[in-house]
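Q: Could you predict the 3D structure of Bcr/CflA family efflux transporter?
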Amino acid sequence: MQQNVKLYILVTALLFGLSPLAIDMYLPALPSMASSLKVSINDMEMSVAVFLLAFALAQPVFGLLADRFNKLNLLLSGLVIFTLSSLALPMVETAEGLYLTRMFQAIGGASSVVCFAMIQQKFDIQKGSQIITYVMATVVIAPLVAPMIGGQILKHGSWEEIFYVLAGVGVFAFVLSLFTHSEKLETVNSKAPNSKASNGKFLNKRVGNDQTEQIASSSLTDFIAIFKQPLPIAFIFLGGFGFAALFSFVAGSAFVYIDFFKVSAENYSYLLGLNALAMISGSLLSAKVFAKVPPNKKAIIAGLFLGPLSFLFFVLAQMQAPLTAIVISVFMFNILLGMISANAISAAMSFYPTQGGAISGVFGLCQFALGAVFSAGISLSHAHSPAVLLSFMGLACASAAMCSTYLYTRSCSQDSELSTHSNASQPCGSL
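A: Sure. Here are the predicted structure tokens for Bcr/CflA family efflux transporter:
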């Protein structure tokens, strides 16, 4: 059974890694593709924005469908679309054709969001949180390692081979999914919202105060209603702003490290690997060392630490910050992000035990929409120093810390209400 769970985690991580790989693996090939298609580099960079936009919008659609239709069929359909569009990309001859195929590639990759609903049905909140921790590590690490993989493929082959490799990975994921995700999903997390199996006192308790009724299937009305619930949406934006800081780094780090600090391309790849190691460390801390701590607590506490870190980013932006200081501060951020990403989505999903698809779709939309906005902001700023990169990362971290502060104060307020009703003393901030 343990081996089956490990394989399930590995395959799910592969499914979630497809789209980040598709986003960033072809970045080193943009100049070659521009020359081959006879378009400007700006036209090529626009294909990244097209992918991000299509991916962000497709996730909530798949999320809503996951609460109504067979999840495995949705997942497999998305993998077919991803694979076929990846095979079609080397055949395009115009920028318009590139945009269209990239759009379909993004739509196919977005089907991975249904795995959140699968995990919610198959495992209880604590085990599900651990699994999501490992899976989300893939999502945050892939944008860092994907350019290195693409660079190696380009070094020994052509840009077309990057998309053939992506298609091959899509086929591999399809076959593995048939074996690992096809078993009948039994609902094991269907206890009442205030049961201890959920997320502890703060999360389960007061769902009724914010949401008086939950239904088994999602609709567009349910999707919109999620944005009206302050607590789950705060967790969603906590994870979303953390992802925005990551995408800010991905968008601006090549210029800062290579052009400004004159770091070699090889050493730049090592620095990216160092950040990937930091996120793995954060994920392992969450899943192993703090395994018994409820996801909401881990997300809130890690998010609060982003507050002083955002101040550090702003200070470094205003001074001639050395490369070492930037590398260390980004390393600390990636550790915290490794703890936040999975726990934030687990905490948000605990409010909707029967609507995992809808809530995970909203989470994905928030993540990639904010990531696209922040990365586009860096691209349009025409930065000539590390100040812009550090400022955008500081802004994203400060926004995430504000979400954590709100969640922390709400927990204090609600703990006080419980203490008043029970005539017992409950320290504020115990979450």
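Q: Anything worth pointing out?
A: The radius of gyration is 21 Å.
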